[in-house]
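Troubleshooting log. The previous run stalled partway through. Resubmitting the same two chains, unchanged.
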Amino acid sequence: MKAKFLIPMALFLVLVGFLAVGLNRDPRDVPSPLVNKPAPAFTRPQLALPDKQFSAADMKGKVWMLNVWSSWCVSCRQEHPLLVEFARAQVVPLIGLDYKDTRDAALGVLRQMGNPYDLTVFDGDGSVGIDYGVYGVPETYIIDKAGVIRHKHTGPITSEALEKTIIPLINELKKS
Amino acid sequence: MLVVLACGTLWAKEAAPLAEDPVVEKRLIDISSEMRCLVCQNESLAGSHADLAQDLRRELRGLIKEGKSDAEIKEFMVSRYGDFVLYRPQVKPLTWLLWAGPFVFLIAGIVALIAFLRRRGREVKDVPLSAAETQRAEALLKESGQ
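Second attempt completed without errors. Output:
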């Protein structure tokens, strides 16, 4: 008989458990369906050299990182110094994708804050961004040797995310 | 007068792209109001003024003009942004619990109700009054009747 009165209590605790998990999740962190899928192909001119093209296929055989950024994006500036530092370690080729931007503004940011990118691709109309499911810059993709997206980080990169997730993953992908 | 007329034609020209092809626009609205804008998550793609929503409407307009079916357009969006863009989740193993959940609860509730009623039916027995009790009850009723 006593156990019967514990049922509402148990149900309540289950509810609390669901809410505790659900309310602590970030609603902006939408899981990307592109993870473990081939990275969408694109060919676009480079930011600094408009007559030179870059194609995602150029990176076949290398583990690389694609960082979507823009001069108008405030959180991109937040992660920028960390990227500059990360690029110095030369762990992977870091390709920038300048999303919905003007060349002058983007080049201005790189001059002012340093350029962490091996090269930046210019996506003025944001159409590459749409193929990559970009919905809020900055976004960062780790792509393996076969050209498959292995990880997506939404929002500014933190040193914690770099050390705990991104760098270990890159090292693992490089081995395979 | 001429200036006013000239202005009128200018306005008419500017408004033209919106009503370019009412059939395409109608389909665009039908499809995009079933989709979530990822920037302002409480707005539909049809109603959002976010930059990304405008770009996506442009893409969808292109797909409609290419003669893509609704399913193909949905697939275009889902392959990029995930099931999250759809206000009406698809029925697949991952969402079975979501779709069936309310009915599971309803059936569990009905089963619990039937079990409860049966048990109560067994507990509440019809106990007839003894002769003495009937007499007493009649006496009490008479008393209150006066």
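Takeaways: Confidence is low (pLDDT under 50) at residues 1-16 of chain B. DSSP finds six helices and no strands in chain B.
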